[in-house]
């Protein structure tokens, strides 16, 4: 009886105390400290995502191995022919900077398992391809030299590692439990967990300050994978201990763990309002592609227009969020001409209108956006920005703003916008007189200096 209760007590200890202790090791942080840690990121508002790997060679989506159910052998030709002879990350960094982007996140490893960096724990890496060099090292140095904050995307999923068990999103996915059991016999996920940790340690140790890390992604459930499969808590603790300032996405399946994530990451989605978790507004970033794929996709033609892309950015800021816009470089190592074209247009706009983006957020309550406009607000300078998505003809009414506004100008050329008060029961409205002709700006912005 005595030994039984002792065993029970130990069991209880393990169940209740140990996991709590494990959680307690995540650095404690107040709300204000977290806001401060993330300030450069929330001020930046605009970053570049880069999806690059072996999938640039087939050039038909970064999930090609999955979609076509390719085996490692069938996929091997892309490894053997990987030789991005034109890779010049300085050129990439210059384009990102000119577009107005302030940070960058590159796929150090995507689901295919190929490592762009020189990892000690695998042979499946850039240094063993005809290219023969660590792509990550050059990338980190180049973007830093342009003054951008540097981040990594690291896939939790791995369709190449021998101990990674076949699951429902694997190229070799099955339809029955027995088939899964047969294929997974002998695979040891604990070895894969170790591999994950080792690689995260390498990435966050060997390349200097890393400002963002994207772990991707969890899909808990039967034939899925979640926090226990990755050992997510250890991974995030490791990340935070190696890079105390690092900003981490929310795909480790640790939503309910304090310190388990820093921002939510709605993918290819325009959010309806500022996202909340447990009733509180949270930091957020939407990641978006120029067209339908993250990796280079030669024949995909649904490219968004510069105006649509700018709207995405402005719309995010107007709801307190960031935009991480993706480029999928080709297998020669260059940005697709369509991507270059869009980056240039965005940069042209940002050059004159970045003030309505950087450091800006949702407008305070009480400011109503007129039809076809988006509002952003800089709480430090106390300026309100009205983005004219559809250019009005001659006049624009701002409802109930008369007592709040001191001066109005176009942002791109600082030219005065004259206005008068409304009449009768609309005396607090402002009626702006705008030039009939739309200024030569993709989305013109009005800057309102408030009282
Ligand atoms: C997804 C996809 C992927 C892409 C990512 C970006 O989860 O698996 O290919 O890397 O989202 O958010």
Describe what is shown at a glance:
The chain contains 13 helices and 16 strands. It has helices at 2-24, 31-37, 39-44, 64-67, 72-80, 89-99, 135-145, 177-184, 189-203, 227-230, 232-242, 306-318, 337-353, and strands at 46-50, 103-109, 149-155, 212-216, 247-248, 276-277, 280-281, 285-289, 322-327, 373-378, 383-388, 395-398, 405-410, 418-421, 430-433, 445-450. Strand 8, helix 12 (306-318) and strand 9 form a beta-alpha-beta unit.
The major beta sheet can be summarized as:
7 strands, parallel
Alpha carbon gap, first and last residue: 77 Å
Give the CATH architecture of the largest domain. Alpha-Beta Barrel
Structure summary, number of beta strands: 16
In helices, the fraction of residues equals 25-40%
* CATH fourth-tier homologous superfamily of the largest domain: Glycosidases
What is the C-alpha radius of gyration, as a whole number of Å?
25 Å
Strands across the major sheet, in which order?
Answer: 5-4-3-2-1-9-8
And the CATH topology of the largest domain? TIM Barrel
Q: What is the arithmetic mean of pLDDT?
A: 95
Kindly give the count of domains.
2
Give me the secondary-structure category. alpha/beta
| Beta-strand content | 15-25%
Number of helices in the DSSP assignment: 13
Low-confidence spans: pLDDT under 50, at least 5 residues? 20-24
Order of helices and strands: HHHEHHHEHEHHEHHEEEEHEHEEEEEEE
**Ligand roster:** alpha-D-glucopyranose
> In CATH, what is the class of the largest domain?
Alpha Beta
């Amino acid at each position: 009886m005595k030994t039984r209760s002792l065993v029970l007590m130990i069991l209880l200890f393990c169940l209740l105390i140990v996991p709590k202790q494990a959680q307690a090791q995540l650095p404690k942080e107040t709300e204000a400290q977290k806001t401060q840690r993330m300030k450069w990121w929330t001020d930046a508002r605009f970053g570049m995502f880069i999806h690059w790997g072996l999938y640039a060679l087939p050039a038909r989506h970064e999930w090609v191995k999955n979609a076509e159910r390719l085996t490692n052998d069938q996929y091997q030709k892309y490894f053997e022919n990987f030789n991005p002879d034109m890779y010049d990350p300085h050129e990439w960094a210059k384009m990102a900077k000119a577009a107005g982007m302030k940070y960058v996140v590159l796929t150090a490893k995507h689901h295919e398992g190929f490592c762009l960096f020189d990892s000690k724990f695998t042979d499946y890496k850039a240094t063993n391809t005809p290219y023969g060099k660590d792509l990550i090292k050059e990338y980190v140095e180049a973007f830093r030299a342009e003054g951008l904050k540097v981040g990594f995307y690291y896939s939790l999923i791995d369709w190449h590692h021998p101990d990674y068990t076949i699951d429902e999103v694997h190229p070799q996915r099955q339809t029955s439990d027995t088939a899964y059991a047969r294929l997974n016999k002998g695979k040891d996920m604990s070895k894969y967990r170790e591999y994950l940790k080792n690689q995260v340690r390498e990435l966050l140790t060997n390349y200097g300050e890393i400002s963002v890390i994207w772990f991707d992604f969890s899909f808990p459930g039967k034939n899925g994978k979640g926090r226990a499969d990755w050992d997510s808590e250890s991974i995030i603790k490791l990340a935070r201990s190696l890079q105390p300032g690092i900003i981490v996405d929310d795909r480790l399946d640790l939503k309910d763990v304090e310190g388990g994530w820093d921002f939510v990451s709605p993918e290819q989605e325009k959010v309806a309002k500022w996202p909340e978790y447990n009733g509180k507004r949270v930091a957020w970033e939407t990641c978006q592609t120029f067209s339908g794929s993250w990796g280079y996709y030669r024949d995909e033609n649904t490219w968004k227009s510069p105006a649509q892309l700018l709207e995405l950015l402005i719309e995010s800021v107007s709801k307190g969020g960031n935009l991480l816009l993706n480029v999928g470089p080709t297998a020669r190592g260059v940005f697709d001409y369509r991507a270059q074209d869009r980056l240039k247009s965005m940069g042209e706009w940002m050059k004159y209108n970045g003030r309505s983006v950087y450091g800006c957020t949702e407008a305070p309550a009480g400011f109503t956006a007129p039809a076809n406009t988006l509002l952003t607000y800089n709480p430090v300078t106390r300026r309100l920005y009205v983005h004219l998505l559809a250019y009005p003809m001659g006049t624009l009414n701002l409802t109930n703003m008369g007592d709040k506004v001191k001066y109005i100008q176009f942002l791109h050329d600082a030219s005065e916008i004259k206005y008068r008060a409304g009449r009768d029961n609309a005396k607090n409205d402002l009626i702006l007189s705008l030039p009939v002709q739309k200024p030569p700006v993709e989305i013109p912005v009005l800057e309102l200096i408030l009282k």
